[in-house]
Amino acid sequence: MKEPKQAPIKDLSELRSYFQSHNVIREYIAHTSKVHSVGWSCDGRKLASGSFDKSVAIFNLERNRLVQDFVFRGHTGSVDQLCWHASHPDLLSTASGDKSVRIWDTRSRKCVATILTKGENINIAWSPNGSTIAVGNKEDLVSFIDTKTYKVVVEEQFHFEVNEISWNNTSDLFYLTNGLGCVHILTYPGLELQAVLKAHPGTCICIEHDPTGRYFATGSADALVSLWDAQELACLRVFSRLEWPVRTLSFSFDGRLLASASEDHVIDIGDTETGEKVAEIPVSAATFTVAWHPSRYIAAFACEDKEAPERKRDAGNLKLWGLPSQG
Questions:
Q1: Domain enclosing residue 19, as ranges
Q2: Which of 116, 97, 121, 103 lies closest to 48, judged by CA?
Q3: DSSP, residue by residue, 258-311
């Protein structure tokens, strides 16, 4: 059973007033070191976090709070990025600096596959049709893993800095962002270059597709976020409220809201239809990762927080925002 979808709010002023009464942040201890990546299962019932401490924590969402369920261990290096299967709510994949990708099953609480790769992995994407996992490493090699056999079927070496990778919603186009401010769009599975978009003057760091298939967004070292029409490949608008390199992006379930985060002490929540600010989440340190829930206006995120009182040790906490101030 999926979490019931929240009714989308159409009016900008209504959205703003909604978040004035839904702006509570709850914090949860998840790890013994910093959290690199958070993500929701497709049914919205579970949240996973991957950490520098080599573990993956699984939480259950119970109404308006997270309850830690269990922790996956097995990676021997930092867990840098994770992603869930787009339609199977129990399957999760993780990319690690230990030169492996692991697939975990939250129902059996086991690692169901370990795929060895050629380098230290930094990013991962699971195609929406479930058939392929792409993983990129520090040497700009992208490996494609067949999820039926859990074997690497294709490797593609790029001759530029590959930062983040993503599929479109129909799984037939593969996107990657690079150090020259460009988005490269390739066919899949053919991997023929379809287009190169000059998206930013600075390094293009992150890319995200919206759940409705209308948009994708890119975040850059120039502190800008650009929103693109996925069909026309035209830049619709630019969000310029942050002042530091944009590290992470996430769209709300209805594609209406775009969260972007950086070293700024706020996470910006923008309206994709107008570009205007809807809300902001106050943070006290650089934000590594943010993820909207797949059916509700709540977001999980993790920052580079330090433990009190000395503030020397990294805190392994994650946070939930968008909770009602009453009840």
A1: 12-323
A2: 103
A3: EEEESSSSEEEEEETTT--EEEEEE-SS-EEEEEE-SSSS-EEEEE--B-TTT-
In a domain, 5, yes or no: no
135 closest CA partner among 127, 148, 145 = 145
* CATH classification at residue 294: 2.130.10.10
pLDDT for residue 327 is more than 60: no
Residue 248 lies in a domain: yes
Q: What's 12's DSSP letter?
A: H
The tokens describing 292, both together, are 């909207």
For residues 88 and 52, what is the distance between their CA atoms, to the nearest angstrom?
A: 26
Q: Look at residue 252 and give its three-state secondary structure.
A: coil
Name the pTM for this structure. Answer: 0.95
Q: How many residues does the chain have?
A: 327
Average pLDDT over residues 218-232: 97
Q: Is residue 6 part of a domain?
A: no
Number of domains in the chain: 1
Each residue of 184-215: pLDDT tens digit? Answer: 999 999 999 999 999 999 999 999 999 999 99
pLDDT tens-digit map of 233-279: 999 999 999 999 999 999 999 999 999 999 999 999 999 999 999 99
Residues paired with residue 68 on neighbouring β-strands, in sequence order: 59
Rounded Cα gap, residues 92 and 102, in angstroms: 8
Neighbour count for residue 280 (Cβ, 10 Å): 17
- Residue 75 tokens, joined: 């990676």
| Nearest-angstrom CA–CA distance, 290 and 39 | 8
Helix (H, G, I), strand (E, B) or coil at 296: coil
